[in-house]
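Possible regression after last week's pipeline update?

I re-ran a chain I had predicted before the update to compare outputs. Posting the input and the new output here so someone can diff against the archived version. Not blocking, just want to make sure nothing changed silently.
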Amino acid sequence: MKTALKLALCAAVLVAASSAPMANEQALKARQSLMQLYAFNLGGLGAMAKGEVEYDAATATAHGENLLAAAKMSHVGLWPEGSDMDALPGKTEALKVIWTTYPAITEKQKALIAGAEKMAAAAGTGIDGIKGAMGAVGGGCKGCHDTYRKAK
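New output (post-update):
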């Protein structure tokens, strides 16, 4: 009985250890998708602010609200330890420092949310509103990227 229990425990440990990299890669894909949502919505707003695309209040409002919804999304599960560039080389630029300074990163998310709130409120008011809120959103992004992502 003890031998069977030991074997079952060893098997469970091996399965858990072998599935951790897969779980970390799934989390990485999810957070990269979240970053793509940020980029898509900011890109639409930025194109309007630069005059590359005609300003449309409804579209700008949708981009601002989508950005805010994405920023407020819980990041639970998106940043498991072992999903950094050392553990998943060539797949991410996330630095290990994320996990040694956690929960400081949650303060950075609050800055992004505050910037996204400004953008959501301003996006439908015109190009000047977008331009005025862009710095707050960019500052929220920069707060994490400067500290927790490999410099480009």
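Follow-up from reviewer: compared with the archived run. The chain is about 70% helix and 0% strand. Marking as no regression found.
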